Structure formats: C-alpha cells, structure tokens
Amino acid sequence: MGAAGHADGVILLRGGAEVYRYDSDHEPVFRQESYFAHLFGVKEPDCWAMIELPSGRSTLFIPKLAPEYAIWMGEIKAPSWFEQHYGVDAVLFVNELQAAVGGAVGSATPSQTPIYILSGTNSDSGLDLATVLPITEGVPAGSIVDSRSLYTVAAECRVRKSTEEVEVMRYAAWVSSCAHSSVMREARAGMLEYQLEALFLFHCAFHGGCRHQAYTCICACGPDGAVLHYGHAGAPNERQLLETDMALLDMGCEYQFYASDITCSFPLSDEFSADQRVVYEAVLDSQRQILNAMRPGVPWSDMHRLMWRVTLTHLSKAGLVRGDLEAMLEANVGYIFTPHGLGHLIGIDTHDVGGYLPHTPKRSDVNGLKRLRTARVLEAGMVLTVEPGCYFIDALLEPALAEGSAYRQYLVPEVEVYDSLSSVQQDDLESYAIGINPRGMATLKRVDPNLEKEIDVSTGMIDAWMIMAPPMKKIARMESGTVMGTTRGSVVQGLYKIAIATPGIEIKLGHKLVSADVENSTLTFFADGTQHVVDYSRSRLIDATGCWSKLRTAVAAADPTFKVETWPWEIHFRNLFTSDPPSGGHTLKPKDHYIFTTAGIYCAVLTGQRWAFSLSVNKTLQADGDWMLADAPTPELVAKLKAHMREHCPPAVSMIEEEEYARFFTRRSFTGQVVRVSRLNYGERVCFLGDAAHSTIPSTGEGMNAALEDVRVLIDALGSSPGGASGPWFATFNQRRLADVQAISSYAAYLLEGMKADAAERNRRTATMVLSLIGQSMGLLGPTWNDKTFGKLAVKMAPYSEVYEEWQSQMKKVQPWGNRLIWYFAKDGGRKQVLAQRRAAKLADAT
Questions:
Q1: Domains and CATH numbers, the chain
Q2: Burial (CB count within 10 angstroms: exposed 0-12, middle 13-18, buried 19+), residue 136
Q3: H/E element, 760
C-alpha cells in the first residue's frame, strides 16, 4: 500500500454474515470469512474490525443483540469478553462503527486519511471477495476509499506462515493423520464409501475437537478414484467397497480455521496387485524425489515437471507409454495422467490465497501447467501440499488415443486395459503439507506412504522412529514418522529388530538413567562405565532403565500441576535370558509376548540382541513364589524353574540354554513402583520407553496398573482413545498382525469381571469404555479370559473418572515446559491472543 502514496490510514474489514438455507430458518454452522479469521480469529458472525495505521491499533465491532437472544442462544457476552478473548485493543458495537471510523480518519478532514477495504478476485476460485459489498454505513462522507491496495498485501501476508501458525497446522494435520490411519484400519470389503467418511468425521470431532472439515470428503474406491472431486452431491461417497479395490481417501479437518489436506491410497485386500503396484510406486517415487528437491529458490512449476518426469519414467518401464522421455515431456504427455497441479498453498483455506498476485509469475497456458494453483518460487515460511497423482480417466484417455491426437504416438493399447480395471482405476496419491524452511522442507504430518512396510511385512508394526546417541548425535532417522509411547515388548521388539538390521545405528546396551533435568531438557545416563548427557528435546526414542519413573518425577517437580505419590509394588521381577541373539534363529510370535497365568505375567522383550523373559512374582497371591527370588541356584531350583517354564511359557523353552536357568538365580531381582498421579495437567501424556509400565492414566491399583495402562497406551497409539493419540509420538499398528493385543484385551476383559464387584457405577463405565475402545480399535469382538488370578485385585481399583474429566478439559493447555519436552497445542485465550496480535501487527508492518 506504500505504492499508493499513503503513510497512514484505516483498514476496515467486514466479517462473515450469518446465512440461512434458502427460505428456511435453518442456519448452517457458521464459519468465519478467511481474511477476517486470519487477522482476528473471531468465530462469531456479523462483526466488523478496524486497524489504524501506522499504530496498528485494532478495534472489533460486534452486533448488539436483543435480550431475547439469551433465551435461545445462551449468554450474551460483554465487550470486555471479546477484548480479552481475541486480544484486540478495543471492542465496540456495530452501531458505533461510523463514529469510530470517523474519529480515526478525522471527521473534519476525512479526505486526507484513506480507508482501505478488501476487494479482489481469488485466483483459485475466480470469485470476488464476498465481504466487499456495500460498506457505506461505516464510511464518513468525503472519505477516500481505496479498494485496490489492501487485497494484494493481505493475501501476501497469508503466504508465509509464522511459527505459531505452523503449530496450529501441525495439530490439524496430526488429527487428520490419526483419523486416516483409523479409517484405514477399519476399511474392509462390503462397507460403503460414506461409512469411511463417517469414521473420519467421528475421529476428527471426537478425538481431535475439530468440528469443521477443510473441504468435502472424498472417499473414492475402485473406479470412483478416477473422479478428481468425487464426493459431491451427485456422487456422494455411496459405492460399496470390493476386495479388489484401491481406496483413495482425500480428507482433512480444520482446526482454529487452519486447514489440513491429506490423501492416501491403499488396497482393500492388504496386498497390491501387480498393476496397482506399478501406479502406486510411480506416485510414491514422484513424491520422494519432489521432497528431496524442494527448497527455497526452486520454482513450483519445476516440481510439477519433475512429477511428470518420474511418473512417465515408471509408466514407460511398465509399457504403458512409449517414446523418448524428453519428447514426451515436451509434448506434455504427463497431463494425460495428471491433469491437476502438483499441489497448492495451504493455510486458512485449503487452497490458500497468494498463488497468483500482480508481482508473482503468471499462470501458464500449457495443458497441465495452467492447472497449477501457483507458479511462485518457493520461499521460507511457505506451506504447500505435495500431491502427485496418476489417473486413468476416460475423458482424457479416449481423445488422447483417437486418430489425429498428438498424444496417440506416446500411448500404447495396454493403457486401455488399465482403464478397464476397477482395481487400479484410481488417483493413487499421497499428499501432506510441507513447510519450507531456510534449510529445505519439513513435513507437518502425514500418513506413512510406505504401505508395503505395514501391509506386507508381518513384523512391521511401527512406521518409523528416530534414535539419538550421546553426546547429542543423531544416529538414525527413518523417513516415515516418529514414535514414542509404550514400555511393552511388541514395540521394543520392533524397534530393536529395525535397529539391528539398519546400518549406521549404534546399539549401546546397559543404559541406566541416573537423573533428569526438565529445565535444561537433559537426561544423564551411565553406560559402559561412562556418564552420558543427552538432550532429550531432540530425541524420539529413549530406552533405559528407570527412564520413565525418574523423568516423570522430575517433570512433576518442575510443574506445580503435578501431584505424584509412589509406593512399592507387591510384584517382584527377575529376567531369564536366551543365550543367542535373534540372528541365531530364535523368534517369538506376537501372541507369545504376553502370557498371563496364576504365576504372574511373562513379558517377552527383545532387549539388545537377546530375548528376556520377565518372570513376575505376586507375593500377595503366591505363597510359594519366593523360590523365584532365591539368591543362589541349586539343582532343585533349576529343575523347578524348567518345569515352571514348560508349564507356563512353552515357546521359550527351546530358546534357553542350560546355563541360563542357573544364571537366573544370580541376577538381581527387582520391584517396580506404583505411581499415582492426581491434579496432573493432561495436556499431553509424557511417555518414554523404559522399565516402568506406568504411562498415561492414573494408577488403578496394585498389579492392575501395568496391563490396563498398556491398553491405554495401545489405544492412544492407534489414535482411538477418548483423548486422542499421544502427540507426535504416534505408532501405527497393523491390527491383523498385532495378535498380542488379544492377550491384553483378554486381561482387561477379566479386569472388568472383577470390577463388577465394585459398587461404583463410574468404575464399571470406565472399564466398559476401555474395553469397547479395544474392540473398536483392534477389531477384537468379545474378548475372553481364562485366568482368574488378577480378579482378586480388580476390586481394589481406584476410580479415575474424575481425573479423566480433567484430562479432557485440559487437553489443549500449554505447559510452561512444553517447548522443550512435549508437543503442545494452541488453546483459546492466551495463545490465540498472541496469534491475533502478531497477525494484526504483521499486516500493519506490511502496509
């Protein structure tokens, strides 16, 4: 606006208005106009706002509601509430707008102070800004109204995102990622497409607190995947799913006005056909190469051409196109298979503004390139989606194959075969938001595209992870995500298997956590007789003795909202190890990781390079259990241990050498501790790998803690808990492979039986909720139980429904130590004020 020659002035903005459905009195759920939402974060309709230049002083104008409003719509909030909630300098009523604007521009000489209003055309939709229409009631007579300068400046302010904006977008993307994973687990042949949509909407609202969707859900299966914007009123996600289908799910929620946009494709059968694999790998390779190439200074159109190059290379190898690659690129053959642009700016709108502005590169008139929603050069702070795709669409293929078509020479008849196969006639793409930073790109959140790891590999229970080694040296990172979240054997086993098989990962055995410093985000370990200090704010996997309990205690000491009580268990542990590493051929099926018996819990863990069988003795129930705690082996004790293992843990017998039975009695026995937490701010559940089994909910009684909390962790990891998954520490489990969950489910089912003796109805409701979630999340209907040992303790379970309610209410509270320790979310109020103030200041500075 400096080009307009004005050093000062007033920005006058009109918020969105309440609308009705045609001539009825039905009011669709209101969503604020995007520019107004970006600058002020106001959710309510029929508001105005004014920003004075150059001071940046902001005034919000709210409608003056009749007293009868309170009868139907609830409390009428005072101006002071709006001022505090949205962080503006002043709040007035709309009927005071003209006087306020007049005072700001100077009533005596209004012609000397311009009033800037938003007026422009959205380059994505081609529509004019809807809030421009008459604003004369707020403009003093004789005022200069500038309707040209503001639109470009306001749009440009939305192109580069602040750190706070990216945080909110990460949360929206995380919720959508969890929801997509949940839908993928539940999808099966025989369902209807709209049921997949319903599952997604449920997860976003119930677990993520996201009421709005960023765009119409696309649940396209089989041939419907070739319809780019499937899901509209004429094709409302209603086809039945077949076993041979590829499912294409393009859905994203909105949080605090900020959009997410995630598309994932997967085979309903859990296995790719040969044809499906060709297309999927073409798109996946495109995505990988684009991500590697993205950085500031790169034109977005170059990334689109790279997508065409990689896709055509794969299709050529598959015999679907022919000819010289460079000639095909010159002829824009890629357009036939990818008629849309590679991706788009994303933010307050899914297709965010700023793609084409007067100072940016113009839209191309070349087929395919003209569909790009921006041709800008990438800059730090931009957030874009990366959406490569490969389609087989009749409306494109038929004219391309017709006589006289310039494309015909590059296509082979087999492409028509692909077009006729419902199993591969799909848009096979993986998309997610990418933030551009000065060093390159960083994903906000995505569903793992490496589906083969999860679908085809039986042990692939974990998407990916990062491990740090002292002194603060990154030694491994796997591409597809991060995980942290449970102490139990199935996850630890998977991590160690990957670590052992991955070159360049250093395995240090014998780590013991000595102390934790929350203020400085450091953990002190002893390993191999040496002290190591690790910056855990940069870590994604920490596995050490005492890690969880010590860190939890340190966090509690640093945060006054924690109140922690601890006391010893009545359960004692001792480990029996195998002699050989897993490379010697020793394996356990997942169902053998947990064995619940009257003698205790047998937890098989791949620790380092050996299996460890953790034998537990519940001294309150086992009068004869002390023999396991003897300090020296005797022939009688060794024989008793062998018999015990043959009876209760037969899969382990062939894995244990003779001398290990004797060594069992020379090892230190240990006990855990019950950690009961009250008044804990559950804005995030901090959960580290370690030796303690206590993780995310208040303790529920001696002996019950571990398994029931493990159930909670597994549900969290699946993104299906009432509170949502545990932040970015998100593990994707394959429900068809994770048989050991059945054991935990059976155990929890027995706990429910024991809890029936408790007269407290809330306890029964809580246990019922846990078990029903297990059934929903894992597809385990009617879990059974065979062991009646732990039922004697189940009646002692302390209720945690009171804490659960507090947990729900505080899910989004920002912890003072959250920057260094945990992922944290934006919350109405404080953080929103900061966002609003910074946005308004940003616009004022730009002008």
A1: 2-154 (3.40.350.10), 163-455 (3.90.230.10), 558-810 (no CATH)
A2: exposed
A3: none
- Identify the pLDDT of residue 630: 87
Query: Distance between CA atoms of 764 and 770, rounded to whole angstroms?
Result: 10
pLDDT of res. 256: 92
> Looking at residue 703, what is its pLDDT?
28
The pair of structure tokens assigned to 771 is 């078990």
Nearest of 279, 439, 408 to residue 336 by alpha carbon: 408
Element (H, E) at 336: helix 334-337
* Structure-block tokens of residue 614: 């953790």
Q: What pLDDT does 250 receive?
A: 93
CB neighbourhood size of 666 (10 A): 11
DSSP H helical ranges for 566-649: 635-648
Question: SS3 letters for 261-291?
Answer: CEEEEEECCCCCCHHHHHHHHHHHHHHHHHH
Of 462, 463, 481, 491, the C-alpha closest to 695 is 491
Question: What is the separation of C-alpha 255 from the centre of its chain, rounded to a whole number of angstroms?
Answer: 12
**Per 3-state DSSP, what percentage of the chain is helix, strand, and coil (rounded to 5)?**
35, 20, 45
Contact between residue 294 and residue 436 where contact means Cβ atoms under 8 Å apart: yes
* 3-state class (DSSP) for residue 790: coil
Q: How far apart are CA 160 and CA 157, in angstroms?
A: 6
Alpha carbons within 13 angstroms on the beta-carbon side of residue 145 total 18
**What pLDDT was estimated at residue 23?**
92
- The residue type at 817: W
Residues with Cβ within 8 Å of 647's Cβ and at least 6 positions away in sequence, in order, are none
d(CA 57, CA 837): 10
Phi and psi, residue 72, nearest 5°: -100, -30
Q: What confidence score (pLDDT) does residue 624 get?
A: 61
Q: Are 632 and 666 in contact (CB under 8 A)?
A: yes
Counting Cα atoms < 13 Å in the Cβ hemisphere of 823 gives 24
pTM across the whole model:
0.58
Strands, E assignment, 43-119: 48-53, 58-62, 90-93, 115-116
Residues sharing a CB contact under 8 Å with residue 666, sequence separation 6 or more, in sequence order = 631, 632, 633
Among the listed residues 704, 692, 673, 688, the one whose alpha carbon sits nearest the alpha carbon of residue 791: 704
List own/partner pairs for 656-662 with CB under 8 A and 24 or more apart.
656/576, 656/577, 656/578, 656/579, 657/578, 657/579, 657/580, 659/579, 660/576, 660/577, 660/578, 660/579, 661/576, 661/633, 662/633, 662/638
DSSP 184-213: HHH--TT-BHHHHHHHHHHHHHHTT---EE
Q: Cα–Cα distance between 18 and 22 in angstroms, integer?
A: 12
Positive or negative: CA dihedral 65, 71, 72, 77:
positive
| Continuous segment of H or E residues that includes residue 423 | none
Token pair belonging to 732:
């994707």
Please tell me the predicted confidence (pLDDT) of residue 188. Answer: 87
Token pair for residue 767? 């246990």
Q: Quote the CA–CA distance of 257 and 641 in Å, as a whole number.
A: 62
For 630-663, b/e burial (b = at least 16 CB within 10 A) is beebeeebbebbeebbeebbebbeebbeeebbee
Token readout for 44 is: 């309510």
pLDDT < 50 regions, the chain: 2-6, 133, 417, 419-433, 435, 437-443, 445-499, 502-507, 538-543, 562, 590-591, 594, 596-601, 608, 674-836
Give residue 446's pLDDT: 44
CA atoms within 13 A on the CB side of 800: 25
Nearest partner of 547 among 555, 683, 750, judged by Cα: 555
Q: Which two tokens stand for residue 83?
A: 């001022």
For residues 611 and 654, what is the distance between their CA atoms, to the nearest angstrom? Answer: 12
